[in-house]
């Protein structure tokens, strides 16, 4: 009897290993046709490796080959109605057209991120906690558009103050039980605030001590631990410490990573844990740390509690920012081979920045905006300054530097405050938007404030001079995007501010939509 059981277990292990290897080999060749949904998802690969998913969250695609349920729910501002956003087909990609239709002419937030695993571990609005009150903000549903497999989708843009949580989970590791997790983040969207996390946290929204968390962290916070270079880094939030290696402080083996789409992985078991990461668009994984638990008290054994968080720390520390596209948590400690197969699946999918055309005021198009005021400025384009984030106009030509050309190139997005209007995302600073503050224009990440979406939304109308297009401020409808003394403002046609001068106002507020410089 014992021998038969052993043979059955061995046969299952060999089949699982073979399935993982075969899937890895097959998916590595799938990049030639990224528009086709993978027949297997990451959670199928984890199951083949005997470490099944117990949470699977994504707003962009199915994480099981057979999944055909909702990915997330949105709520629109116009009437507070909600809608589940599903898939184009089983095992496929998000049906972004459902969201676009439902949210037309208003704004939407993401209210639920559904768990695709059988465990039902959905993420909803995080409540207040020991570090900060709540409930937390919900993510603007249109702020992180991408394409996946050639299909439009939306990520979860976490501005400071935004967070999701589930304190009543099913199947998530507790105590010193082993688990694994991965997430895909925007490697260009981060800060040093605490804490942009995804993973295992306390169930009471409080800091209950060392070792009570095990979550992926991404950012450049140096308050506890850090890696080489200036960051950002993939680290582990184990509570009262962000760890990039065995202990707090510098761990030079953990590199700075800022891929536009970043795969981050964390796994932990009995006195063993590892960090891995890579480019979610191509290539394999690197191991940043693999070793024993921190030697400070409380981390061996661990005291994990089994809540799930996204965008915040375990005690609701909510000063971080980042963008999340997909992630899972597993039962058991995944093998490197399984994780390598998952990475191959991810790179085969074809994540892309969502720029689909050029030279038009259509969301997804890359453009440059050319001034029309003669004789001063007809060779000048709207661009941001890297040094101080201010927005200006300057002369851009074919001989300009690549940096200057990129600074003068924008991706048109659906308006953050009203999808019938427009917002403008920097092509070389992904996740940062053109916005006005005290009437002057800047390039900023969303600061989490209630006015940012309006400050970053502009409604196109016929050019005030009869040429091109003018852009009306969503929250100051008598003011238009204007250059004045080579600096850009929102300005009325007459008023107390110098930039409201009536002289050449109509020309200064009229722009030509040009082919992108970058």
Describe the structure.
- The chain has 518 residues and is α+β, with helices and mostly antiparallel strands.
- The strands form 9 sheets. A 10-stranded antiparallel β-sheet has the order 3-2-4-5-9-20-11-12-14-15, covered by helices on one side.
- The longest helix has 27 residues, at 2-28.
- The protein is elongated.
Backbone CA Rg = 24 Å
Please tally the helical runs, counting DSSP H or I stretches of 4 or more residues: 7
* Sheet with the most strands, sense and barrel status: 10 strands, antiparallel
Morphology: elongated
The overall pLDDT, averaged over residues, is: 92
Binned, the helix content reads 10-25%
The total beta strand count reads: 35
SS strand fraction: 25-35%
Question: Whole-Å distance between the termini?
Answer: 69 Å
Q: Oligomer, anyone?
A: single chain
Strand order of the largest sheet: 3-2-4-5-9-20-11-12-14-15
Classification by helices and strands:
alpha+beta
Uncertain stretches: 1-38
Provide key terms for this protein.
single chain; 518 residues; alpha+beta; 10-stranded antiparallel sheet; 7-stranded antiparallel sheet
């Amino acid at each position: 009897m014992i021998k038969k059981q052993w043979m059955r277990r061995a046969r299952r292990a060999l089949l699982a290993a073979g399935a993982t290897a075969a899937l890895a080999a097959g998916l590595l060749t799938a990049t030639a046709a990224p528009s086709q949904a993978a027949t297997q998802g990451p959670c199928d690969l984890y199951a083949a490796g005997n470490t099944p998913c117990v949470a699977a969250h994504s707003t962009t695609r199915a994480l099981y080959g057979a999944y055909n349920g909702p990915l997330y729910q949105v709520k629109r501002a116009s009437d507070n109605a909600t809608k589940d956003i599903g898939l184009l087909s089983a095992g496929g990609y998000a049906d972004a057209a459902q969201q676009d239709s439902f949210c037309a002419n208003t704004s939407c937030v993401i209210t639920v991120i559904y768990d695709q695993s059988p465990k039902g571990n959905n993420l909803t609005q995080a409540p207040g906690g020991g570090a900060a009150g709540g409930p937390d903000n919900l993510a603007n549903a249109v702020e992180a558009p991408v394409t996946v497999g050639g299909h439009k989708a939306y990520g979860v843009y976490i501005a400071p103050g935004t967070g999701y949580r589930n304190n009543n989970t099913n199947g998530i590791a507790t105590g010193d039980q082993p688990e694994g997790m991965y997430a895909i983040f925007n490697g260009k969207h981060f800060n040093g605030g605490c804490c942009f996390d995804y993973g295992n946290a306390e169930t009471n929204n409080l800091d209950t001590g060392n070792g009570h968390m095990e979550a992926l962290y991404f950012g450049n916070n140096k308050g506890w631990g850090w890696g080489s270079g200036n960051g950002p880094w993939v680290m582990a939030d184990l509570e009262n410490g962000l760890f990039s290696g065995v202990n707090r402080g510098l761990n030079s083996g953990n590199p700075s990573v800022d891929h536009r789409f970043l795969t981050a992985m964390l796994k932990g078991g009995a006195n063993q844990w590892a960090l891995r990461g890579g480019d979610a668009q191509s290539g394999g994984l690197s191991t940043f740390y693999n070793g024993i638990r921190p030697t400070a008290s409380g981390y061996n054994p661990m005291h994990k509690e089994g809540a799930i968080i996204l965008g915040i720390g375990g005690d609701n520390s909510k000063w971080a920012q980042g963008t999340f596209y997909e992630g899972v948590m597993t039962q058991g400690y995944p093998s490197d081979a399984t994780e390598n197969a998952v990475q191959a699946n991810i790179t085969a999918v074809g994540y892309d920045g969502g720029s689909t055309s050029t030279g038009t005021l259509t969301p997804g198009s890359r453009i440059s905006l050319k001034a029309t005021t003669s004789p001063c400025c007809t060779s000048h384009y709207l661009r941001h300054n890297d040094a101080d984030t201010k927005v200006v106009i300057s002369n851009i030509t074919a001989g300009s530097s690549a940096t200057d050309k990129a600074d003068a190139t924008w991706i048109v997005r659906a308006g953050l405050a009203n999808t019938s209007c427009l917002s403008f995302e920097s092509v070389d600073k992904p996740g940062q938007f053109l916005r006005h503050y005290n009437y002057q224009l800047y390039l900023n990440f969303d600061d989490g404030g209630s006015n940012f979406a309006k400050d970053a939304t502009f409604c196109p109308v016929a050019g005030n001079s009869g040429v091109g297009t003018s852009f009306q401020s969503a929250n100051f409808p008598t003011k238009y995007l204007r250059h004045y003394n080579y600096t850009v403002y929102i300005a009325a046609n007459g008023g107390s501010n110098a930039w409201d001068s009536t002289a050449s106002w109509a020309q200064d507020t009229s722009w030509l939509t040009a082919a992108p410089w970058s």
